[in-house]
Design goal:
Distance between the termini: 24 Å
Helix content: 25-40%
Strand content: 25-35%
Shape: globular
Largest sheet: 8 strands, mixed
Number of strands: 8
Oligomer: single chain
């Protein structure tokens, strides 16, 4: 588990399936993730979900975002881990709208970035967010990410952002 100020990041588990299904089927959340909304029936989703939990990837790790009292409110992950280049990509979604605009996203990002720099000893974390998602961009910038370019994928325009280990004050303190 990874602890933040108001959140806990824990490994994904079967109990997360229903929330994840609801969030992935939500058209607004899917749009913010530049993905099509899930349309398969829940029983089929659960089969696929269970299989994915049993077959973890060596280049990624998915976490459930929970409040301190254990309520599952979203997900985050690192993926495309490249040990040679010492970098990874970060993703986050707060699926429960009751927790939007209350600092939970920044707490998740801060906790995950700190973990990646301290525990995984990587040098760079990057991400992409829709150009139209200014709320996410402000949150990432608040956490130290800086824009470095733009990208296009399947007709969606993205802002590319990154942060380096040497820019992360907590990582430097840990090395002192």
């Amino acid at each position: 588990m990874i602890n933040g100020s108001n959140i806990i990041l824990r490994d994904k588990g079967p109990d997360d399936a229903w929330d994840d299904y609801a969030w992935e089927a939500d058209p607004e959340l899917a749009r913010l993730d530049a993905a099509p909304a899930v349309t398969i029936p829940y029983p089929q989703y659960l089969i696929d979900y269970t299989y994915e939990l049993k077959a973890p990837h060596s280049t990624s790790h998915r976490f459930s975002v929970c409040t301190l009292d254990g309520k599952h409110i979203g997900n985050c992950s690192y993926y495309n881990l490249d040990k040679y280049r010492k970098e990874t990509e970060l993703g986050i979604m707060i699926g429960n709208r009751d927790y939007w605009d209350k600092g939970y996203g920044a707490d998740v990002i801060t906790a995950l970035v700190d973990y990646i720099f301290r525990q995984l000893k990587l040098d760079r974390i990057y991400l992409k967010t829709l150009e139209s998602n200014t709320r996410a961009q402000k949150c990432f910038q608040k956490c130290g990410f800086t824009p470095y370019g733009q990208g296009n994928n399947d007709g969606s325009k993205f802002m590319l952002m990154e942060i380096y280990r040497h820019q992360w004050p907590e990582a430097e303190q840990a090395e002192s």
